[in-house]
Amino acid sequence: MKEQVLTYSRSRGIFAGLELSGAVIKQDKDSTRDFYDRMVPFKTSLEGTIEAPQSAYPYLSTLAKWAKAAEAR
Fold it and tell me: What is the pLDDT of residue 10?
């Protein structure tokens, strides 16, 4: 993330900057089963080597439209 964010808080106390240099991604197995109607290995879903269910296409097409608009900026 390279964008600067400005926030305002009415809280009192100590404020400090924080930098995160790593992330952990974990699979939610129940959500995976709900989405694909079966268990799919996490690596398979992250790499996109499995076709999304038909019910996901309205969401995915909207997401693709907004991603293209953001990329054009």
Answer: 64
